[in-house]
Amino acid sequence: MQNEKLKIKISIADRVYPLTVFPQQEEGLRKAAKEIERAIKQFEQSYAVRDKQDVLAMCALQFASKSEQKSINNNNQVSEAEEKLNALNNLLQEFLAK
């Protein structure tokens, strides 16, 4: 049943976090945990950072900036689409006015 929650354990930075989630959330959470682990390893190797707090802060910054950039990009695309639609609408109105 989709409404029943699952008890899962997610490991991040050598710590295990027990979570209670809906079945449809499990895959996303597991993929997110794997992505965080990948980013942790990358920061540790690239910058020789050993303090987990610093590594996790950099991971949080990286993921938040990606999210913000997607939002900015989407807003820009919406604005461009609105401009094009307005221009098309103006052309149609001019044509129909003739």
From TrEMBL:
The keyword Cell cycle applies. InterPro entries: Cell_div_ZapA-like, Cell_div_ZapA-like_sf. Signal peptide: none annotated. The keyword Coiled coil applies. Residues 71-98 form a coiled coil. Keywords: Cell cycle, Cell division, Coiled coil. GO terms for biological process: cell division. It holds the Pfam family ZapA. SUPFAM superfamilies: Cell division protein ZapA-like. This is Cell division protein ZapA. It comes from Mesonia phycicola.
